[in-house]
Amino acid sequence: MTHQVRAVVARGKGAPVSLETIIVPDPGPGEALVKIEACGVCHTDLHYREGGINDDFPFLLGHEAAGVVESVGEGVTDVAPGDFVILNWRAVCGQCRACLRGRPQYCFNTHNAKQKMTLASTGEELSPALGIGAFAEKTLVAAGQCTKVDRSASAAAAGLLGCGVMAGIGAAINTGGVGRGDSVAVIGCGGVGAAAIAGSSLAGAAKVIAVDIDDRKLETAKKLGATHAVNSKATDAVEAIRELTGGFGADVVVEAVGRPETYQQAFYARDLAGTVVLVGVPTPEMKLELPLLDVFGRGGALKSSWYGDCLPSRDFPMLIDLYLQGRLDLDAFVTETIALDEVEKAFERMHDGDVLRSVVVL
Ligand code: APR
Ligand code: ZN
Ligand code: ZN
């Protein structure tokens, strides 16, 4: 059997997205068909639309999603029809060197659904964004991309853990190892940085310093647990962070912008034994220039964070519990809920200073 559903498709480089009818097959072995309830609009969706990731048009966009499993294919035992799930980018194999050494985030054999969804009008195969494609009433994924969480969470909030918010919380807690009493500085307080702030606060950081060039982002950061806010348009970020940490620098600095100057600030704003966590994604032509003596002379660690070093089956249910207990304000990230045909408008609003996330609710 197949399913005809409405979905948001990017048909060509830079062209506005369109609402299309797509054909979704029933799940094959190891796959799950998911009825999508909510999906956040992420910068990566826009990058796909602009052809910045690859040329495999048409793309089925959307990857920050939660929904309910409708049916599963042969051999699927971890999730069952009726389960409320958050989707992650790729199922891991559990058998490669990375998986066996306890680093499944770097699995060599990650996979998505093998069967293809197609455009009803032309029969063309769709490339689902990040192997998900969730700006659709239903989508097909590998069963290992589904993590069951508590049904009482709102789908709009839960879906955010599938990408940006997990990346930010995980950058602070999993990659940065933020713990009780630490001082943390977060440079860039968009969706990802704001999540790093919420994560640092959850982990018991004593000081959480938010740095941004936009005062509206700093206001939201304070609501999510920032103890100090620095507008780096007006003040030197490194000096301000040093001053707020007794002259030492922060134990953990999270960079969530992705530019050479903010990478540089992060490098110099850490305590000598501190950790820099790079989560902002640079473009291929960007370079970071540092005196080698500074690299040699400073201890600590320089780390990049991929998907918040998350383990979905460990982290998604835990963060949903914290949300349901009122300890993690996921709702604060949802600036607006929109309909499926408003994704293009959400792309336009993406760079408004007052949008953390637009979330499609189905
Ligand atoms: N200094 C400080 N903050 C800055 C600077 C700067 N020079 N330039 C931009 N910013 C702030 C913006 O004001 C904004 O609040 O960085 C924030 C970026 O936020 P978003 O555009 O919402 O991006 P976000 O989704 O949070 O992602 C941030 O992480 O995962 C990566 O690809 C993602 O590189 C991107 C980064
Ligand atoms: Zn994303
Ligand atoms: Zn593996």
TrEMBL record:
<dbReference type="InterPro" id="IPR013154">
    <property type="entry name" value="ADH-like_N"/>
</dbReference>
<feature type="domain" description="Enoyl reductase (ER)">
    <location>
        <begin position="14"/>
        <end position="362"/>
    </location>
</feature>
<protein>
    <submittedName>
        <fullName>S-(Hydroxymethyl)mycothiol dehydrogenase</fullName>
        <ecNumber>1.1.1.306</ecNumber>
    </submittedName>
</protein>
<dbReference type="InterPro" id="IPR002328">
    <property type="entry name" value="ADH_Zn_CS"/>
</dbReference>
<keyword id="KW-0862">Zinc</keyword>
<keyword id="KW-0520">NAD</keyword>
<keyword id="KW-0479">Metal-binding</keyword>
<comment type="similarity">
    <text>Belongs to the zinc-containing alcohol dehydrogenase family.</text>
</comment>
<dbReference type="InterPro" id="IPR017816">
    <property type="entry name" value="MycoS_dep_FDH"/>
</dbReference>
<dbReference type="Pfam" id="PF00107">
    <property type="entry name" value="ADH_zinc_N"/>
</dbReference>
<dbReference type="InterPro" id="IPR036291">
    <property type="entry name" value="NAD(P)-bd_dom_sf"/>
</dbReference>
<dbReference type="GO" id="GO:0050607">
    <property type="term" value="F:mycothiol-dependent formaldehyde dehydrogenase activity"/>
</dbReference>
<dbReference type="InterPro" id="IPR013149">
    <property type="entry name" value="ADH-like_C"/>
</dbReference>
<keyword id="KW-0560">Oxidoreductase</keyword>
<dbReference type="Pfam" id="PF08240">
    <property type="entry name" value="ADH_N"/>
</dbReference>
<dbReference type="InterPro" id="IPR020843">
    <property type="entry name" value="ER"/>
</dbReference>
<dbReference type="InterPro" id="IPR011032">
    <property type="entry name" value="GroES-like_sf"/>
</dbReference>
